[in-house]
Design a protein that fits this description.
6 strands, alpha+beta, globular, six-stranded antiparallel sheet
């Protein structure tokens, strides 16, 4: 069972847009807490296309530096692009993710603070915030 902030690398090709499929790194952000069946999880993938997003003032991103995190390259976590279509079991079964570590409490606080600015439904923000709380990560600003 994943905890918020866990970094997962999948070697199976993945694409959220249906175009360029490649290996991806994900940050686990939580689970749906409403009485939905199936109970989906919230993941966010990283990108190494730093300039594309840094120039986009509307994009809500968290930056990670290689060597100061569990990522092997500088990358951005773009919070506007959440993956919400998997249950935990389906994600594991399809991609066999490799655990690479956890982003840590400081980055998690930055993520939850910025998530409130992202183009994400209030219901998903509420679910993610509840997941953070249940995993012991403060969510107040």
């Amino acid at each position: 069972m994943y905890k918020v902030g866990d970094v997962l690398r999948v070697s199976q090709p993945y694409s959220s847009t249906g175009t360029e499929k490649k290996c991806r790194w994900f940050v686990f952000l939580g689970r749906c807490h409403f009485t939905e069946i199936p109970r989906n999880i919230f993941l966010c993938t990283t990108t190494t296309q730093l300039e594309k997003y840094k120039d986009n003032k509307a994009a809500v991103c968290v930056e990670f530096k290689a060597g100061n995190s569990c990522f092997d390259r500088d990358c951005l976590l773009c919070l506007d692009e959440l993956e919400t279509s998997f249950t935990e079991d389906a994600f594991i079964s399809r991609f066999q993710p490799e655990m690479k570590g956890n982003v840590g409490p400081d980055k998690l606080r930055e993520i939850v603070r910025k998530l409130r600015q992202a183009d994400v439904s209030p219901r998903i923000v509420q679910d993610i915030t509840e997941s953070f709380r249940l995993d012991g990560i403060p969510t107040s600003i």
